[in-house]
Write a structure and sequence with these properties.
alpha/beta, OB fold (Dihydrolipoamide Acetyltransferase, E2P), Rossmann fold, Ribonucleotide Reductase Protein R1, domain 1, 3 domains, 5-stranded mixed barrel, 13 strands
Length: about 375
């Protein structure tokens, strides 16, 4: 960091830098002050400014596009005074963690903005759901942040050998991402994670019962988040965090804690899916056809690897599932993609019909 005014040292600790200052210059010329959104709640938000945290109204930044709704992590341009103050604009986001909503409409929801590290918390108190990890990672890679998988409650694994096997399984599921076993109760791995997140903004993601709030408390060194017990029968828990909060870490950096996510729908995450399944994408480069779908095409390098036992069938099925889901989400808002999908379905139907006719001919034999 260089040439950051001393009166903005509080903001600098929350990620403010010369590039943000340059982007904010037009708003500064209007007499507005910068601040970082630490919480959003029904049209109001808490914004950290050089004067401390202020309550502000978002009335003037209510867009039609839900992807442009102000969210935790945004850098806002706020009125210098008033009761209430108003957010007049926010700066273009460097990164954004987005998922699709449960709505039948084609909408995305931004969970956190301007994030450097996306921490996917996975509890070892329950059976690993590798497919869910892949889904979180696809969104994390797509956001532009650096993903990290934290295996919480490592102290519940009875032996070191068992823990190493679990870590290895997740590492195979998360190519390119660091996998860190951790116990908030014993402190194992907490210092390693604290060093990683000290360099920027991190968002904490995971389902209810993953130990996110306990982990946030461990990183903060204090009980700032309420913690609820998980069920012994399945390791699941109730929602502890109900809003997205930006916390200042004592060792440096900031942490956005999110509510447990029941649904993690993809949102235009083609690049993210490709990063999660890097080995399949690498194999696909050697397929005979550039548009190979890795289902029944001749010369498919992916299917060849599957037959040789070099590619687990679970990985390929998960890859196909996320690819289909992502295409469906895109098609809901893109007529060109919808038309392409219809052409593909018709082509598959013709191929299937030809294959069935060929099989019937083989069974009937020569006349």
């Amino acid at each position: 960091m260089s040439n950051v005014p001393s009166h903005l040292s509080t903001l600098a600790a929350h990620g403010w830098d010369d590039d943000w200052a340059a982007a904010f210059a037009p708003h500064a010329a209007q007499g507005l002050v910068p601040g970082r959104v630490v919480r959003v709640d029904r049209g109001l938000c808490d914004v950290l400014t050089e004067d401390g945290v202020v309550r502000a109204d978002t009335e003037f930044v209510v867009p039609r596009d839900p992807m442009k709704v102000i969210c935790t992590g945004d850098w806002a341009a706020v009125d210098p005074a008033g009761d209430p103050r108003y957010v007049r604009a926010y700066l273009p986001r460097r990164t954004a963690f987005v998922r699709s909503t449960s709505s039948k409409r084609s909408e995305g929801q931004v969970l956190a903005a301007n994030v450097d590290h996306a921490i996917v918390a996975v509890s070892l108190a329950a059976e690993l759901d590798l497919g869910r990890i892949e889904r979180f990672l696809a969104l994390a890679w797509e956001s532009g942040a650096e993903p990290l998988v934290v295996l919480t409650k490592a102290d519940l694994v009875p032996d070191a050998t068992g823990l190493s096997y679990l870590v290895e399984d997740v590492e195979k599921t998360a190519p390119g991402a660091q996998v860190l076993p951790l116990s908030s109760r014993t402190g194992e791995g907490v210092d390693v994670l604290r060093a990683i997140v000290a360099g920027g903004t991190s968002v904490l993601l995971g389902v209810s019962g993953a130990g996110k709030s306990t982990l946030a408390n461990a990183l903060m060194g204090a009980d700032v988040m309420d913690v609820q017990e998980t069920r012994e029968v399945d390791g699941k828990g109730r929602h502890t965090t109900t809003t997205r909060n930006l916390l200042t870490l004592p060792g440096g950096g900031v942490l956005i804690d999110t509510p447990g996510l029941r649904g993690v729908g993809l949102w235009d995450a083609e690049t993210g899916v490709g990063r999660v399944f890097a080995e399949i994408e690498e194999l696909a480069a050697d397929c005979r056809f550039h548009d190979c779908r890795h289902e029944a095409e001749p010369g498919c390098a992916v299917l060849d690897a599957l037959e040789r036992g070099e590619l687990p069938e679970r990985r390929l099925e998960s890859y196909r599932k996320l690819q289909r889901e992502n295409q469906y989400i895109i098609a809901k808002s893109d007529a060109r993609v919808r038309a392409e999908m219809r052409r593909t379905w018709k082509q598959r139907g013709r191929i299937g019909k030809m294959m069935m006719e060929a099989k019937r001919g083989e069974h009937q034999g020569p006349r």
